[in-house]
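Please fill in the sequence for the structure shown.

STRUCTURE ENCODING:
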């Protein structure tokens, strides 16, 4: 007998492919009409936005008229809270509505982590763009402003002073942020030397697998088409601190089963959490972790969502450094990059899930990983 699974997704093909590969599933989907063709053959209900929880509630009830699903899968960060609501409404195992808020609503997340003693950036919530100066009185300037719901560094801005904020607001610099129609998180700007991330797998409330990586350049200053980073030596003292911090974060948000993507700042007083997500990171991070440590974060994400056992390792941890870089889709670049010594894989836009060429490479140490990244950028016609 087939298991009924409800997927809340937009165009996240990694999850869809993994679910369709399981012959014992009856797949139901809540999505936007723009993505209807992706889910042909599935029982589907449509919403204008996953942030319209009233629409999500009605769609879930529509699809569950013949019985509730066994599992609910949130394939995108935008659908995490909506999926939590559906689980709570229908009595389905997994993250509840409150637990989903702790992993997706940035102010609720920071409140939860701070209460658990986890070092986080100081923040306050503004009701709108024009409310930002009031919120910044609580955090102090300079600040970073971003939507309380959102993935990666989209619609995120550094602002140095009230005067700069007013000038840029009048110039329309924050119009895309205002158009989101959700509150704005105002964070005190953190002074940091480097930015890191930790990507893990949690089962039965215990971190079973985790890897700490460092960005080559700060994501907020880096266009997505050239984003890059590398998996660190996990015995490095700072990596050990981040791994312990990751364990505390997973416990604080009461994550029982799932994957994590934790963003961390390296500061003079130690690691400070930026935010956490309960989905794999983007821009090639899951593939990089797979090359470095032998586990597939998207596969683990689906396994955890379906209540399946932990997946097998494809290989032992690779010695040295494993790095990744996104590059613009220059004709012939994929083939030229694949010929560079140390390159493990060069993926085209059709393979990597982005509009970029995605390259994964190995090196004996960090300086030579930096050199490999520089050479790949040169092949793409970019400056070092």
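FILLED IN BY: designer on duty
SEQUENCE:
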């Amino acid at each position: 007998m087939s298991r009924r699974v409800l997927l809340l997704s937009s165009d996240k093909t990694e999850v869809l492919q993994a679910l369709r590969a399981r012959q014992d599933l009856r797949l139901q989907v809540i999505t936007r009409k723009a993505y209807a063709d992706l889910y042909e053959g599935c029982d589907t209900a449509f919403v204008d936005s996953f942030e319209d929880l009233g629409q999500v509630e009605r769609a879930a009830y529509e699809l569950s008229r013949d019985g509730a699903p066994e599992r609910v899968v949130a394939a995108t960060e935008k659908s995490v809270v909506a999926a939590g609501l559906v689980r709570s409404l229908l009595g389905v195992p997994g993250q509840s509505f409150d637990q989903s808020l702790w992993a997706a609503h940035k102010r609720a997340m920071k409140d939860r982590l701070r209460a658990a003693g986890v070092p986080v950036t100081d923040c306050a919530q503004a009701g709108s763009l024009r409310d930002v100066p009031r919120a910044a009185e609580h955090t102090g300037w300079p600040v970073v402003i971003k939507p309380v719901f959102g993935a990666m560094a989209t619609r995120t801005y550094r602002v140095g002073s009230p005067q700069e904020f007013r000038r840029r607001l009048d110039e329309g610099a924050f119009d895309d942020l205002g158009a989101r129609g959700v509150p704005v998180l105002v964070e005190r700007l953190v002074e940091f030397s480097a930015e890191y991330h930790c990507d893990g797998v949690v089962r039965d409330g215990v971190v079973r697998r985790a890897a700490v990586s460092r960005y080559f350049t700060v994501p907020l200053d880096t266009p997505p088409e050239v984003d890059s980073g590398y998996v660190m030596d996990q015995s490095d003292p700072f990596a050990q601190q981040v791994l312990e911090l990751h364990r505390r974060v997973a416990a604080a948000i009461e994550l029982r089963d799932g994957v994590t993507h934790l963003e961390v700042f390296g500061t003079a007083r130690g690691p400070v959490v930026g935010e956490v997500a309960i989905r794999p990171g983007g821009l090639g991070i899951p593939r990089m972790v797979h090359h470095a440590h032998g586990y597939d974060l998207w596969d683990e994400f689906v396994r955890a969502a379906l209540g399946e056992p932990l997946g097998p390792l494809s290989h032992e941890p690779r010695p040295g450094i494993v790095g990744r870089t996104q590059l613009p889709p220059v004709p012939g670049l994929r083939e030229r990059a694949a010929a560079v010594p140390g390159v493990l894989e060069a993926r085209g836009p059709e393979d990597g899930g982005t509009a970029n060429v995605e390259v994964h490479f190995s090196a004996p140490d960090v300086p030579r990983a930096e050199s490999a990244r520089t050479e790949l950028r040169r092949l793409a016609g970019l400056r070092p």
